[in-house]
Give the backbone structure.
Amino acid sequence: MLANGKRLTTLSVLASSFFVGGLVGPFGFKHVGYVSTVPLAVVLVALACVPALDDLGRITRAGATR
């Protein structure tokens, strides 16, 4: 049985990101405070805007063809 290398890499990066975030987050919050969460929140909002705007564009294009 062979492993899917691309999928294994993706899942490993995901698991590692959760682990590193679980270690770094509390230290940043302890030493810097609430402000340490702002850059992450900005990145997450930016990442969420792309698919949201894509869906909004798809909805408006579908409404225009009716």
Remarks:
- The two ends are 51 Å apart (CA to CA).
- Residues 1-31 form one domain.
- Residues 13 and 49 are 23 Å apart (CA to CA).
- The first helix runs from residue 5 to 31.
